[in-house]
Structures are given as C-alpha cells and as structure tokens.
Design a protein that fits this description.
The complex is a heterodimer of chains A (342) and B (360). Chain A has 342 residues and is an alpha/beta fold. Chain A has helices at residues 8-14, 21-28, 38-101, 108-114, 142-160, 178-193, 225-231, 246-262, 272-282, 323-335, and strands spanning 124-128, 164-168, 200-205, 208-211, 234-240, 289-292, 311-314. Chain A has two domains: 38-101; 121-245 and 283-335, Undecaprenyl pyrophosphate synthetase (3-Layer(aba) Sandwich). Chain A is 49% helix and 10% strand. In chain A, strands 4-3-5-2-1-6-7 form a seven-stranded mixed beta sheet, covered by helices on one side. In chain A, helix 4 crosses helix 5 and helix 5 (142-160) crosses helix 6. The longest helix of chain A has 64 residues, at 38-101. The radius of gyration of chain A is 37 Å and the shape is elongated. With 360 residues, chain B is of the alpha/beta class. Chains A and B meet through helix 3, helix 8, helix 9 and strand 7 of A and helix 2, helix 8, helix 9, helix 10 and helix 13 of B. Chain A: One of its GO terms (cellular component) is endoplasmic reticulum membrane.
Chain lengths: 342, 360
C-alpha cells in the first residue's frame, strides 16, 4: 500500500474484494455517536415502554374504530336509503308524466307514429314478465294479470312492426294454456287493430307445437281478403320459461352424453356451432333487445346462451308492465351502435 | 371535460399532502364501514371504456388501457379490503382479436408487464393474499405471453384468502361449450354404472343430421363413415327400451342394448344424473362462490358474452355510465351500498314469507 502512496480510504475505494464485517464496523465507527451513557440507556428503556403503551393504545383504539365503522355504516345506509326513496319517488313521478304524454290510446297508429323516427328496430324482441302470486303492488297479480301483460305487450309489438316477440316468465304457467292465451292475444289484437286489419298470430313454446289456428275467425273478410292478407303482418309470440335455460342445456348434454356412450358422437365434434344450432332450433334465436319491467337488472334464469349480445333495457325503479318502458327501450335501442368487439 | 393537462392545478391540489392524507383516511373509513354490512362474495367487472376515454382526452389508445389498469388496481384494493372473495375481470374477449394488430399487440405486451407487476412479492395481490387465475382459451395466446401468465399464476399460487380471475381470451359461449364437452367426456368414458334411456326433447337423429352435415364439409379428409351406419339403428330400439323401461326392470333393458352395442359390454355413468350443478362444476369459475354483482362501465347495456352462465340467475347486474379509467371508490360506493340495501330488503322479505308460512 505504502509503495503506491495511497491513503487507506483511497485504497479502500480501489479495493475489489469485500470487506469483512469487522472492517466495515471500523470504517463506520468515526461517524457514529459515542457509546450510550447510563442515563441514555434508561431513557431508551423508558421510550420503549412508552412505545409499548402506544401499541396498547392502538389495541384499545380498534374497538373505537370498529364502533366508528359501524356508526358510519349506519349513517351511510340511512342517507342512501333516504336518497333511494326520493329518487324512486322522483322517477315514478317522472314516469307517470311521461306515460301521460305518451299514451298509446290502444291505437296502433299512435304506436306506429311513436316509433316512426327510429331507424333501427329489433327483429326479435324479448321481455321478462313476472307471475305474482299475491296482489300487493298493482292489479297485475295471478294468471289474469300475466295474461293481460302478455296481451298488451304483444299488441304493442305488433303495432311497432316487430315480427318476433318472446316472453320470458320464470314459472312458465302460460305454457299450460296455449289455446286460451292465443285467444286472449287474438282478442287484444282485434281491439287494437279492428277485425279487418289485425295481424295474423302464432303462439309457440319450446318443446310444444306451434299454435296458430289456420283460418282463425270465419268472418275474416273474405271478399277482398286475398290482397289484404298480403299486407297483413305476422306476429309470432314465443313463451319461454326457466326450463328453457339451464335445464335445456343440461338436457342437451345428457343427449350428447348418451350418444357418446353409444359412440355416435366424438368429443371433438361437440363445438359451439352444434350447441348453437340445437338451441336455436329448440328454444329461440338471440333476441336483439331484452326489456325488463323490474326495478333492477336480475335475469331470473333467462336462457343464458341466447343472451350473448342482447341489449338489456330496464327503467330503474319501474314496477310493472307499462308502455313507456317499452317505448323507451325501443328509443334506446335505436340510438345504440352495435359493436361486435371491434 | 377538457384534456388531461388542463387540470394541473386541480391535480396539484389533490396530491398535496394534507388533502391526499384526508382523502386516504376517508377512503379507509368508508371501506371499513362498508365491511359492516353484507359484502358480495364474487364481483365481476367488464372494463369497458378505455378507448373512449383515450379518445375523449386525446391520448393514445394504449395510454387509455394503461389508465384502465390503474383503475383496476384501485378497485381491486377496494374489493379485497371490503372482503370480496373473488373478483372476475373481463380482460380480453376472443372477439377482441378482431381489433387492429397494433392494439392487440400492445394489449398483449401490457398484459405481460402488468400481470407481473400485480403478482410481484409485496405488491397488491400479495398484500391481500389473492391468487391469480387465468380463465379462457389459452391456445389463442402467443407462447411468450403464456409464459408470463403462467409465471404470474405460479407466483401467487400460495395465496388463499382471495382470488382474481382474469378472463383472458374468454367468451362465455366457449366456456359453456367446454363445460358440455367435459361433461360428455366424463360420461362417455366407461365406468361401472348403468345407463337408463329415456325420452328427451333433443332428438338424436336431429343431432346426427347436424353432425353428418358437418362431416360432409370435412369429407375430403375422409374417415367419416362410422356414425352413419349407426344412426339408423338406435332410434327405434331406443323408443322401445324407453317404453318398457318403466314396466320391466331397467337392468334387462340395458343388458340387451349393451349386447347390441358392444361385445364386452362397458358400462357408463347414468347420463340422467347430469344436472345443472354438473355443468357448473365444469365451468371455469367452478370453485368460486355464486356471482353476486356484475358491473359494466361505459353505459353499454350488454353482457357481451361474459359470465352468461353465472350471471343469468340472481346476480345483480349494474350498468354504469362512467368510463372504466374514471371508475373508482366514489363510483363503486353507491353500487355497493345499493346492493347492500337490496340485500337487506330481500332478507326482510324472506323473513316475512317465513313468518307468514309459520302463522298459517
């Protein structure tokens, strides 16, 4: 070292090998404060004790914090519940005003006028209606209320020129009354359109044969009926229930499993197209627009496969079937541009 | 709103220590108080609006995605702090491959870096004991990205408190198809059990027809004669065995069909035992609790092939107008509080029904 004429620090700077722990301590010693005196150690101990006390205080403060949290939780919940109530009241009032301004008067021309400016209409419209056991909210309970809702919606859809309407109702009670439902819808259409202009109607449910009486009422204007029939539109109403969702996919799986056991189908043959084609044929195609008449968006078991790109519309806090929801859904649908992941 | 750079004073104010401290304390307080009520166990997010945000603020699309990731980190923190067990995010749809190559590449390289960042020791996921799982069609991702993904998954595999499901190249229809395929595979392999034939809505002949059509398209490759020879024979026999299946003992009916089909008579699991639960167990989210809440930002009211099987029953679906990079506790809080409120209502209703049934 001496031969190169370097001070120890300079030598250290150029040294490549690691210093030992002892050497490093030596290196640092001049910069450290002197050894702790007696009093200082005592101070230090006291400080440590006070730190322990502080940590104890932190322990004590956890229940206080929990209490604070619970208090804030209840305050927030209270504030929001007041807010929700006011918002609901406001929305209901607004809804009432809108439904006063936009009423269909059970006339297809009014409805056609309302949707005249929309440049995009759903080809397949789907709605979710509810079967209410008890009459609590409105007079829409029981089977009668359900049939009434379905009839009204069908008439609106026919007036708006929508060719396919699927009605989802969880329990599927209406499927047991296909002929009666058809007659009810038929009557409602007659009330809207009049006997001569009313659209032809077929009622369908998955796994059940289509119900469309071929020559419905005999008084269907025979003399100039031929050219009238050309103009007359056709409405297909499809009744869906919970069974057409998961259960149907399960059914398909069972059938495929059975076929696989016989060797009729190989695993790699099962693909999206196969399932899609089967479900398309047996249940329904993808709806373009799904209207919910419930206050929140809960799909309640709607067939999942068909929901892929369906536009879902609901009016917040709305309860029950009414025309303005239907109309707003159509307006909303026309505004939205379709983006298929692009 | 103007460009991002206009709000410099606002930003300066928001990042000044006292303000930042207050906001942080407030967040902690709110999150802590949210914990006192019911908390959704499984939340899913569709992170929509990154590109629109970028367009609105005149920044690069990739930059928008970056901001979206920051937003995700914030929301994950909120979720895990409040006690959400599983968070599922729709990171990349199979449909997204249709976007420009530049953007897809950028997203992929972003996924590589960001997953690594999330998974690092002491980083967000480690702090909350969350493990990453990647759901989707792995074969569509390039191998280098896959390597990074696997590394991130392995790094967090030891965490058990929470889960982050990243739906990477994912569509729900593909998920359902895979689940059906797996179920068929399990039930299609011989096992010691007896099948019971019965009538169902799907006609086998119809499916065979479809398959045959598919086969015709692939006919040039050859090797498609096996199912045709069989398709005619099982249908009448099936009907008869279904008819006498109830009157006579099922075992005789099966034995006869087994003799017809194969000599050594392998037995299978009963396909009738396939239920919705079987398929649910084969979904990619099998071990997660049922989906409680699904949030989609940017005002698009569609599921877009996400969580169809999981979200079509009792999930609360919420569509928000705000864009994903703007999404934060302040947007999420009303959603959570409303969900808690609904949950409370639901409980009250159930109690009322129970009370009524008791009094009857």
């Amino acid at each position: 070292m001496a031969t190169t004429g370097l001070t120890p620090t300079q030598a250290a700077a150029f040294r490549r090998k690691q210093l030992s722990a002892q050497q490093r301590e030596e290196l640092l010693k001049p910069f450290l404060p002197s050894e702790l005196s007696e009093t200082e150690t005592r101070k230090k101990i006291r400080r440590r004790q006070s730190q322990q006390n502080a940590s104890k205080r932190a322990h004590i403060s956890t229940p206080i914090r929990t209490f604070l949290h619970i208090a804030i939780y209840h305050v927030v919940a209270l504030l929001f519940s007041i807010f929700f109530r006011f918002r609901r009241a406001y929305r209901l009032a607004r809804g009432k005003v809108v439904s006063l301004l936009k009423y269909h008067h059970r006339t297809p021309e009014f409805i056609a006028h309302d949707v005249k400016d929309l440049d995009k209409m759903p080809k397949h419209l789907s709605v979710i209606v509810e079967y209410q056991e008890d009459d609590e909210s409105q007079g829409t309970a029981g089977l009668e209320g359900l049939v009434n809702d379905v009839c009204e919606i069908s008439a609106w859809a026919a007036s708006a020129g929508i060719p396919l309407l699927s009605v989802y109702e969880r329990t599927g009670v209406l499927k047991n009354y296909l002929p009666q439902t058809h007659a009810s819808i038929w009557n409602t259409l007659e009330a809207y359109f009049g006997p001569r202009r009313k659209p032809s109607l077929s009622l369908r449910a998955p796994h059940l044969s289509s119900y469309s009486p071929p020559n419905t009422p005999p008084q269907a204007a025979e003399p100039n009926g031929s050219d009238l029939k050309e103009e007359r539109q056709h409405l297909t109403v499809l009744l869906l229930s919970e069974h057409d969702g998961r259960d149907t996919i399960v059914d398909l799986t069972r059938t495929l499993a059975e076929m696989a056991q016989k060797g009729d189908v190989r695993q790699e043959q099962i693909n999206m197209d196969l399932i899609d084609a089967q479900l398309n044929d047996h249940v329904s195609c993808e709806p373009d627009l799904l209207i919910l008449f419930s206050p929140t968006v809960q799909l309640k078991g709607y067939p999942p496969w068909q929901l892929r790109l369906t536009e879902i519309f609901h009016l917040p806090d709305n309860k029950g079937v009414n025309y303005q929801v239907f109309l707003r859904a159509l307006y909303n649908f026309a505004k939205v541009e379709m983006r298929l992941g692009r | 709103m103007g460009s991002l750079h206009d709000s410099r004073i606002h930003k300066w104010f928001a990042t000044s220590p006292p303000v930042a401290w207050t906001v942080r304390q407030l967040r902690e307080l709110l999150i802590g108080s949210l914990k006192q009520g019911p908390v959704p166990q499984h939340v899913a997010f569709v992170m929509d609006g990154n590109r629109r945000f970028a367009r609105n603020h005149h920044i690069e699309t990739v930059e928008g995605h970056n901001l979206g990731f920051e937003s995700l980190a914030r929301i994950l923190e909120v979720c895990y702090k409040t006690g959400v067990k599983v968070v599922t995010i729709y990171a990349f749809s199979i449909e997204n491959f249709k976007r420009s190559k530049h953007e897809v590449d950028a997203l992929m390289s972003m996924a590589k870096v960001k997953l690594q960042q999330l998974a690092e020791h002491g980083a967000l996921l480690d702090r909350y004991g969350a493990s990453i799982r990647v759901l989707g069609q792995r074969e569509l991702v390039s191998p280098d990205v896959l390597l990074a993904v696997d590394k991130a998954v392995a790094m967090t595999a030891h965490n058990t408190k929470a889960v982050l499901n990243v739906c990477f190249p994912y569509t729900s229809r593909h998920e359902i198809t895979t689940a059906v395929m797996k179920a068929v595979a399990t039930y299609g392999t011989p096992i010691h059990n007896l099948p019971t034939p019965s009538k169902r809505t799907f006609s086998e002949s119809h499916i065979t027809q479809h398959l045959r059509k598919q086969m015709l398209e692939e006919d040039t490759e050859g090797g498609a004669e096996q199912p045709e020879s069989r398709s005619t024979s099982p249908s009448p026999k099936d009907a008869t065995s279904a008819e006498d299946g109830r009157s006579s003992s099922t075992s005789t009916a099966i034995n006869s069909s087994d003799k017809d089909e194969t000599q050594n008579g392998p037995t299978f699991l009963d396909p009738e035992s396939i239920s919705a639960q079987t398929l649910t167990d084969h979904m990619m989210t099998a071990d997660a609790p049922p989906l409680d809440l699904l949030v989609r930002t940017s005002g698009v009211k569609r599921l877009s092939d996400f969580m169809l099987w999981q979200a079509h029953e009792n999930t609360s679906i919420v569509f928000l107008e705000c864009l994903w990079p703007e999404f934060d506790l302040w947007q999420f809080l009303p959603v959570l509080v409303e969900w808690q409120w609904q949950q409370k209502k639901l409980q009250e209703e159930q109690q009322r029904i129970r009370g009524r049934s008791k009094s009857d």
